[in-house]
RNA sequence: UCCCCUGUAGCUCAGUUGGUUAGAGCAUCUGACUGUUAAUCAGAGGGUCGCUGGUUCAAGUCCAGCCGGGGGAGCCA
């Protein structure tokens, strides 16, 4: 049915016109004032009900969560809390929400509690704001790439490639697991499976994206990825969405320039288009921080943090410099770090957090990591020790982007495969790219949910995806 | 997978060195009020204290095991 989005009515230019509101009741005060939200904005509209017009039977059922549709005149509000309100002429109760059973009441609920009510948490201000912004980020990502000459590439979700090396994979099979077909020597006969071989859910579209980039020039993927790691943290999901641009003829510096421009564009987009939702989340975060001890509070609130990122260049340092900074740091000298620091180790969370939150106080791009701690496809540097890799770290989240210039030299890549125990016949097609018209190219992966965490200030990744998939949990 | 914390009303939490009938705020219900802003005021209902076992005259409180939730670490995005 046709109805007026609340978002379109909150400005006063439609005063005097008859409007139709459909939405869900937030509160009903004084048996007269009905706050209704329809999801078009974080703001509610106030419906004013004449008790002569709407029966007591209906009024009793206007409880939090009930759905209604009403028509009436849009008028200037006599109250001070809002500019406009609707003088109700007709009101239809569409669906009741029994207050004894409906779990979302007008009070502060913990995020833990709402996580267990994921089917209803959209009805809260916090989650509706988060998911509006999540949509906005999806749209802005496609817009950025489209405006900059990239082509969106759909890489496979089910993959027969087992060389991606990004983590444990989910097996995909149509075999009867209680009674699988077996070969003569008693092993499960993989040839009988749907694809005639072992297949899995993808952990990354990067290798396929490289194939696209080496013909279309600039491509990006934006799709679901799956990791069967037993990770129990507030920053990991078993099913998450990833953006992976890949650009032909780009080197590591081009790659960093792209990643930084891209991230800052997205933050600006959120500030420009989701001001109401961000203002609400900013206040929410501020209230939450009040209960924290002073030394755990971030120096900048959400909005200030986003503005700072939008307006300032990221810090760029090499891994080797980062190690030097850490070795000269106060916490290192006072032995506050739990993990040792020496050239060659992978940076721990505590080290990354120090660099980003205490030392530079801004997003940091770390480049040129030791070859031994990075993936096989990253391009070997001239020093023979490091590779052309880059990670972008942001305050509060840690690593949000990981990328590299890819190894385009066939001989070097074949050597790397040997060193990493990857049989050439498994990635013959990836090696073919270096045999025929090879060229330097680079790309990165951005974890979409980590981006949404950063932009919304939410502290747990399970609160920025509608239905999170984590170990031991696939509810809904 | 490892370490730490935690489980008391629908929700958020308090509950002393073990001691009478387990409390508060919000939510709900009843009534009052009627231009309210998470309205207010008065009253009421609501509990197998996660589960199982143990110590004790006595366990929400102490001990053990199990189950659930959270935080941190590793792996990474």
What secondary-structure arrangement, pairings included, does this model have?
Layout: H1 6-9, E1 18-29, E2 33-37, E3 45-48, H2 56-60, E4 67-76, E5 84-95, H3 111-116, H4 125-147, E6 151-152, E7 158-159, E8 171-172, E9 199-201, H5 206-216, E10 218-226, E11 239-248, H6 252-273, H7 275-290, H8 302-311, E12 315-318, H9 319-327, H10 330-333, H11 349-360, E13 364-367, E14 389-394, E15 398-405, H12 410-419, H13 428-435, E16 441-447, H14 448-456
Parallel strand pairs: 3-5, 6-10, 12-13
Antiparallel strand pairs: 1-2, 1-4, 2-3, 4-5, 7-9, 8-9, 10-11, 11-16, 13-14, 14-15, 15-16
This protein binds one RNA strand of 77 nucleotides through strand 1, helix 3, strand 15, strand 16 and helix 14.
How helical, in percent, are the residues? 25-40%
CATH architecture annotation name of the largest domain: 2-Layer Sandwich
Distance between the termini: 28 Å
Order of helices and strands: HEEEHEEHHEEEEHEEHHHEHHHEEEHHEH
Highest CATH level, the class of the largest domain: Alpha Beta
Number of helices: 14
Description:
This protein is α+β, with helices and mostly antiparallel strands and 476 residues long. The protein has two domains: 6-102, OB fold (Dihydrolipoamide Acetyltransferase, E2P); 125-168 and 203-463, Bira Bifunctional Protein, Domain 2 (BirA Bifunctional Protein, domain 2). Helix content is 31%, strand content 21%. It contains 14 helices and 16 strands. The longest helix has 23 residues, at 125-147. It binds one RNA strand of 77 nucleotides through residues 26-27, 29-33, 35, 46, 48, 51, 63-64, 77-82, 99-103, 105-110, 112-113, 115-116, 166-168, 204, 225, 227, 229-237, 240, 242, 338-339, 348-350, 398-402, 445-451, 460.
């Amino acid at each position: 049915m046709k109805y007026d989005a609340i978002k379109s009515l909150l400005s006063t230019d439609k005063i005097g016109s008859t409007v139709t509101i459909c939405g869900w009741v937030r509160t009903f005060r004084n048996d007269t004032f009905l706050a209704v939200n329809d999801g078009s904005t974080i703001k509610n509209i106030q419906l004013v009900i004449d008790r002569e017009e709407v029966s007591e039977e209906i009024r009793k059922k206007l409880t939090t969560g009930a759905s209604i549709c009403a028509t009436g005149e849009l008028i200037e509000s006599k109250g001070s809390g809002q500019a406009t309100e609707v003088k109700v002429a007709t009101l239809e109760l569409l669906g009741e929400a029994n207050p004894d059973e409906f779990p979302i009441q007008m009070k502060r609920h913990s995020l833990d509690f709402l996580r267990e009510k994921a089917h209803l948490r959209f009805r809260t201000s916090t989650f509706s704001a988060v998911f509006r912004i999540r949509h906005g980020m999806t749209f802005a990502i496609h817009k950025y790439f489209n405006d900059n000459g990239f082509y969106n590439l759909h890489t496979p979700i089910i993959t027969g490639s087992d060389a991606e090396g990004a983590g444990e994979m989910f097996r995909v099979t149509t075999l009867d697991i209680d009674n699988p077909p077996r070969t003569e020597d008693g092993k499960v006969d993989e040839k009988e499976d749907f694809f005639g071989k072992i297949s899995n859910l993808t952990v990354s579209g990067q290798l396929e994206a490289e194939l696209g980039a080496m013909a279309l020039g600039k491509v990006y993927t934006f799709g679901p990825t799956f990791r069967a790691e037993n990770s129990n943290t507030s920053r990991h999901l078993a099913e998450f969405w990833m953006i992976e641009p890949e650009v032909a003829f780009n080197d590591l510096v081009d790659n960093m320039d792209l990643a930084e421009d891209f991230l800052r564009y997205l933050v600006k987009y959120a500030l420009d288009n989701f001001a109401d939702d961000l203002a609400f989340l900013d206040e929410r975060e501020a209230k939450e921080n009040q209960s924290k001890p002073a030394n755990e509070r971030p120096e900048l609130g959400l909005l200030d943090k986003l503005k700072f990122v939008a307006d300032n260049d990221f810090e760029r340092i090499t891994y080797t410099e980062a190690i030097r900074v850490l070795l000269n740091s106060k916490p290192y000298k006072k032995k506050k770090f739990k993990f040792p620091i020496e050239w060659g180790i992978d940076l721990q969370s505590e080290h990354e957090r120090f660099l980003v939150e205490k030392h530079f106080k801004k997003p940091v791009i770390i480049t040129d990591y030791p070859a031994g701690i990075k993936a096989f496809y990253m391009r070997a540097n001239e020093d023979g020790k490091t590779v052309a890799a880059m990670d972008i770290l942001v305050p509060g989240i840690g690593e949000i982007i990981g990328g590299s210039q890819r190894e385009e030299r066939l001989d070097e890549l074949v050597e790397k495969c040997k060193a990493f125990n990857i049989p050439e016949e498994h990635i013959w097609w990836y090696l073919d790219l270096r045999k025929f018209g090879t060229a330097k190219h680079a790309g990165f992966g951005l974890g979409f949910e980590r981006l949404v965490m950063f932009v919304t200030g939410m502290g747990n990744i399970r609160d920025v995806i509608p239905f999170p998939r984590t170990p031991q949990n696939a509810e809904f």
